[in-house]
Amino acid sequence: MKKLAKLFAIVAIIIGCSFASYAQTPIKIGYIDFNALLAGMPGIDSVKIKLQTYQKTLTDQMDAMKAEFENKYLDYQSQSSSMSDLIKQTKEKELSDLQGRIDAFQQKAQQDLQTKQQELVAPFIEKAKTAIKEVAKENKFTYVLNAIEDVVIYKDEADDVMALVKKKLGIQ
Predict the structure, then answer these.
(1) Total-model pTM
(2) Residues 90-124 pLDDT 10s
(3) How many domains in the chain?
(4) Domain range holding 45?
(5) Separation between Cα atoms, residue 56 and residue 125, nearest integer Å
(6) What are all long-range contacts of 22-30, with beta carbons under 8 Å and residues at least 24 apart?
(7) Shortest CA distance to 61 belongs to which of 105, 95, 112, 97?
(8) Percentage of the chain exceeding pLDDT 70
């Protein structure tokens, strides 16, 4: 029983000390508009151009597939009255298969575009996060929040770390 009482006393002392030391450390919270930071980073414009070029390539391929479908559909409509049932079924199957390929291509293209965007933007995100962490440590911020609309209810302009992070990244 004495050992249990000593254990409780030790735990209480440890908890008390940790609360006391925590109470002495002020919490300092900063914020930054992460999207605005990314948009202002050097080199991000080339990423946007690469993504637009890649998207145009995918869009051009999609347009070609849709044009092929439309041509085959118009051909089917104009000749369907003179086609035998077997040829109609074959043409309908061909149109259905082509529509399925178009749908699959569209889904895959969206996934590929997102993957490409993540791949191209990831180094910029990592660089920005590293700079934010360094600024937070240098300026003794306990937390740095992303100042997304409606997430940060109130913010004091003095706690905006954008200028500090831009300086760290060498952005004007």
Answers:
(1) 0.67
(2) 999 999 999 999 999 999 999 999 999 999 999 99
(3) 1
(4) 2-169
(5) 24
(6) 25/142, 27/142, 27/143, 28/139, 28/140, 28/141, 28/142, 28/143, 28/159, 29/141, 29/142, 29/143, 29/144, 29/145, 29/159, 30/136, 30/139, 30/141, 30/143, 30/144, 30/145, 30/159, 30/160, 30/161
(7) 105
(8) 81
